[in-house]
Amino acid sequence: MAALDCDNVNMEPDVEMLSDEELEREAEGFKEQGNSYYIKKDYSEAFNYYTKAIDTCPKNASYYGNRAATLMMLCRYREALEDSQQAVRLDDTFMKGHLREGKCHLSLGNAMAASRCFQRVLELEPDSGPAQQELKSAESILEYEKMAEIGFEKRDFRMVVFCMDRALEAAAACHRFKVLKAECLALLGRYPEAQGVASDILRMDSTNGDALYVRGLCLYYEDCIDKAVQFFVQALRMAPDHEKARLACRNAKALKAKKEEGNKAFKEGNYEAAYVLYSEALTIDPNNIKTNAKLFCNRGTVGSKLKKLEQAIEDCTNAIKLDETYIKAYLRRAQCYMETEQYEEAVRDYEKVYHTEKTKEHKHLLKNAQLELKKSKRKDYYRVLGVDKQATEEEIKKAYRKRALMHHPDRHSGASAEVQKEEEKKFKEVGEAFTVLSDPKKKSRYDSGQDLEEEGMNMGDFDANNIFKAFFSGPGGFSFEGNSSSGPGNFFFQFG
Could you give the C-alpha distances from 150 to 55, 136, 144, 178, in angstroms and in order? Predict the structure, then answer.
């Protein structure tokens, strides 16, 4: 018996080739199973069976159309678009294929391409209600796009957000519309919303340069400049021609550098240089509200150091306009108000601070401002005598001597009734001032802000002439007496 020649034996089994008819039947079976799962809303399984049908009969347009419908339900619009386009390439009269292609274009925000698809459906079936309705949606999106473009140019970012919200109702998968909305939300200062939109896009497409730019923009506007630069750089890596990311990156770096130069000059005590540097930083990007608020406050601090108090108040006010929650700006402005004796304004700022942050320090600052306000509304006896608050007992006496003689009624007896009345009032005030400031106990209470009348010291119960006579009648002094024989207004001093 001859040996078996293994090298010449074909060990592979015979493959039974299926006829075209049998392949079509098998493909139809897969399609029917896909339909069954589609009806049950098990779109993943439906997709698998439609794919088997396509693999079995790749020239059947309806299989691609069915799989496109399934992909649309799975929100995989780009893949659905490819399948629907393949369907109409295989059969240009396949109306459902054109309709699905149009819906995919619409969902992805390409309203022009969508319109062409719906118009083709209407050529095949002029009375198609779905095509007519979808065509109207496409036309609406085109109109919203035009409105948004005009709104962006006019910096009417609320209008842009409104338009994009309306457009996204029909174009839910359009990243371009979402990014534009997110950018405008950031420009409106609605950073959490903007970041949310951008993050949703990045979860689906981590290489989306526009979404990376918006994430960086939010961080930049929240004064997280270092992190912002990282996102801008990443956006430029994904899209080297992204001009907005390039400009934002340049501004962020310039703003950080100029602000740090200003801080360094301030710490070194070079306030004039710091003032100039902060001013230069404020010109870099007017849109960066949070950083500019800090720059205004920093410049206000420098202004207060340079004794430019009104300018400092204005800078702090600008900071607060940009950021109404900026406690440091309120505190700095209140301090400047105190130094310029604008106590009502200081109290208002300290109240705002204390209601926001109820700390012991803020409570103390508020009480002190309220005390100074109360003191400012009563007569300023130091001003009446023309002395400062550190005046000595001797300086107070000297000031009284001068002012009492200046305003004594007899000195002005020849003046008009109006002038006499005014001088008499001033004479009385001088007496009040001396009565309080020459008495250590009264002076202490006055300086501490206590109401002297509440303490039982009625300032209306004394006679200014008696105080005058008592002051000048002492040894070494002189007394004042009227001389009626010399006529009204004449007087002489009699030394003791």
Answer: 48, 22, 10, 17
Q: What is the model's pLDDT at position 385?
A: 84
Amino acid at 140: S
DSSP secondary structure letter of residue 94: -
User: What H or E segment, with its residue span, contains residue 479?
Assistant: strand 478-482
Long-range contact set of residues 90-97: C-beta below 8 Å, sequence gap at least 24: 90/59, 90/60, 90/61, 90/64, 91/61, 93/124, 94/61, 94/62, 94/65, 95/121, 95/124, 95/125, 95/128, 96/62, 96/65, 97/61, 97/64, 97/65, 97/68
Tens of pLDDT, residues 325-342:
999 999 999 999 999 999
> Any idea which of 145-154, 374-383, 446-455 has the lowest mean pLDDT?
446-455
Q: Which of 260, 185, 187, 252 is nearest to 224 (CA)?
A: 252
- For 265, other C-beta atoms within 10 Å of its C-beta total 19
According to the model, what pLDDT value does residue 435 have? 83
CA distance 149 to 377: 57
Give residue 458's pLDDT. Answer: 54
Query: What does the alpha-carbon distance between residue 130 and residue 96 come to, in Å, rounded to a whole number?
Result: 10
